[in-house]
């Protein structure tokens, strides 16, 4: 029997307006496992109205910042308690290994602890203006209702930084998860209820982006939009939000270079290359999908990577010995498969993989291409699957020119024992993240953002809270006369 979820609006568990539902399919079995409310624009209106009401009336605006922080920390404790259940939900929904979702969900709690600790450390400033008898200071106030839109690859982890920072700032939130993976976010709402958040502070609606996305982003009572997902969708969100001058925080796509120099520790570099592209079946915005290898070690690296790829076990993501799970959605599975023909027509050579896995499930073999030129589509377009393009380079300048020759700029990796080179590349690479002798690390304390078409702004870290705050200047005259600049006293 399928699990039956409801939306969470204004502290109540509700069906979609009109009562329609849709199925969520398990990408491993190909069968429906959950029933999700099919939200409409009326549901958007209800959720935003609940969030707006909670922002301006009732317990939430009356709470001290310390009290808000305590609720966020309590939520973190509940997430740890329920981590196994939430991890199983995400694995059923998107096919990611249970080993990985279990770690991710537990780590998600750290975001709420972190931002819970920040809630009462948001401070304005007193400004020593040059005018006499004036007390001038700034206040930081919530930007309003925050629309959070999350993708299907890591729903709860990606939502945590957005929700945690927005609530620490005193905002209220409406979350719309991907239609492919709504269940875990709807389940998370139960923990907000148990933690004691006032009604309407957190709302979760489910539905299809092409039906309600523009309406949600353009809603007049939404003050800010935080989105993680594809670049084309992010562009559309930015265009719609700009019509009403909404602030946006957009973490978008990437075509990240992972660069191996001849002086690298090859054992670690090979592991970094594998985890950079085959972890999560390549469905990561920071995937190291372009592997740049110095020509002198190119053949050796290719041979070792091919051997490693052949040893990767595909199978049930719930099984502890599975290395790689299925592609999360049917449209994404078909998109990944389409790049096999594209690579072949562009002249790339497939040295391992290049086919789907026989049998049930949306599995794609770990795939490696050589003979890749940086202007080929597989080297320029985000595929979001386990397809690795290997590109040779001659020297430092050549590597840097290839690495930066892309429309994206989200992440990058450098493998070298030369610290002068490590610092040079860390500064010269046009990317929001540079990993040196490591890959794919992240922290709730460290900003995550991109250059170029990889997004606007950055998430995580202490500065992210300020994305959800207005800065207000207050002027107070304590002199006998009221100063009137540029007006002659009568």
List the defining traits of the structure above.
Aldehyde_DH_dom; Aldehyde Dehydrogenase, Chain A, domain 1; 6-stranded mixed beta sheet; 15 helices; Aldehyde Dehydrogenase, Chain A, domain 2; Ald_DH_N; globular; single chain; oxidoreductase; 490 residues; oxidoreductase activity, acting on the aldehyde or oxo group of donors, NAD or NADP as acceptor; 7-stranded mixed beta sheet; Aldehyde dehydrogenase family protein; alpha/beta
Please, could you describe this protein's structure?
The protein has 490 residues and is an alpha/beta fold. It has two domains: 271 residues, Aldehyde Dehydrogenase, Chain A, domain 1 (3-Layer(aba) Sandwich); 180 residues, 3-Layer(aba) Sandwich (Aldehyde Dehydrogenase, Chain A, domain 2), CATH 3.40.309. The protein contains 15 helices and 25 strands. The strands form seven sheets. It has a seven-stranded mixed beta sheet, with helices on both faces. A six-stranded mixed beta sheet has the order 10-9-8-11-12-23, with helices on both faces. Strands 1-5-4 form a three-stranded mixed beta sheet, with no helix packed on it. Helix 4 packs antiparallel against helix 7.
Question: Got a strand count?
Answer: 25
What's the CATH architecture name of the largest domain?
A: 3-Layer(aba) Sandwich
Q: Quote the distance from N terminus to C terminus.
A: 82 Å
Name the CATH superfamily classification of the largest domain.
Aldehyde Dehydrogenase, Chain A, domain 1
Structural class: alpha/beta
Q: What is the helix fraction of residues, given as a range?
A: 25-40%
Assembly type of the shown chains?
Answer: single chain
| Spatial order of the strands forming the largest sheet | 15-16-17-14-13-19-20
Strand content: 15-25%
Enumerate how many helices there are, as a single number: 15
CATH class category of the largest domain: Alpha Beta
- Uncertain stretches of 5 or more adjacent residues: none
If you compute it from the alpha carbons, what radius of gyration comes out, rounded to the nearest whole angstrom? 24 Å
